[in-house]
Specification:
Length: 268
């Protein structure tokens, strides 16, 4: 969720994010159980089991204050590298506000490493470094034309079925700041829990501190409210909306799906 497509890609992997239904240790007990990292801005410290593959995809419609609209179709491929490490490859199908074309945005690659588990203060703690390449079209508004390096810190807690995920991230990028600010930050805190055995809810507050330069923007604070439904243990669908509290955050509505494909080694 962001003020513009350029700002959206600036956050890199922080844009794909999750409804959490189970604590990390419970998910690891069943490697075929989906671990959604959408639809919130924050993500959790959980990782896909080693050798397993999970796919996330969604559709989002953004409505801006000037009554323009943009569409976004995020896609993420997650591969378990080790018990506490996960590779994520992410892109988006983008239709920027006012654009007459639809194309692929900038590709981002990151590795989430859960370095601490069940600690008193940070709970399950992970660090997610990532890099975004300038693969999208700047002319069509699909990308920023910059190479971005980001670091996201993730703290996840489980309180008898109610989860809390707190994120803080920072991005630095190439370029002269005319299309996207040279640096940007993000913070988010999301609560989630079950309604029934298959239906879950999530509620989040997130923010982007103000940025400087030619492409700078004022601070943004917004909320996300969403729900998920577990069709199968390996298939979860979600829907919800985002709304601004302050700043030029668009109103957004979204739907999505998370599919745990299975064990990679059995398929190659």
């Amino acid at each position: 969720m962001s003020v513009s497509r350029a700002h959206r890609f600036a956050v890199a992997l922080a844009a794909l994010i999750s409804i959490r239904q189970l604590p990390v240790h419970a998910q690891e007990a069943d490697p075929h159980a989906a671990q959604p990292e959408r639809p919130t801005v924050s993500t959790h410290a959980g990782t896909v089991a080693p050798g397993w593959v999970e796919v996330e995809a969604g559709f989002e419609d953004d409505g801006y204050a000037d009554r323009s609209h943009g569409d976004l179709g995020p896609i993420a491929l997650k591969i378990g590298l080790a018990r506490q490490a996960q590779l994520t490859i992410q892109d988006s199908i983008v239709r920027a506000p006012g654009a007459g074309t639809t194309g692929f945005g900038d590709v981002a690659i990151g590795v989430k490493w859960r370095s601490i588990e069940h600690a008193p203060l940070v709970g399950n703690f992970a660090i997610l470094p990532s890099i975004k390449m300038p693969s999208g079209s700047v002319a069509d508004g699909d990308g920023t034309g910059t190479t971005d390096v980001s670091v996201l810190l993730i703290s996840s807690h489980d309180f008898r079925g109610l989860s809390l995920d707190v994120n803080a991230g920072y991005t630095t990028r190439s370029g002269n700041g005319s299309i996207a600010p040279r640096s940007a930050a993000v913070w988010a805190a999301a609560f989630a829990g079950p309604v029934t055995s298959r239906l879950g809810w999530t509620s989040e507050v997130f923010g982007y501190p103000g940025t400087s330069g030619e492409a700078g923007t004022p601070p943004i604070v917004g909320i996300i409210e969403g729900a998920s439904f577990q069709v199968r243990k390996w298939l979860v669908v979600d829907a919800g909306f985002a709304a601004p509290i302050t700043g030029p955050q668009p109103h957004a509505a979204f739907v999505g799906v998370v599919y745990n494909v299975g064990q990679l080694r059995k398929r190659i």
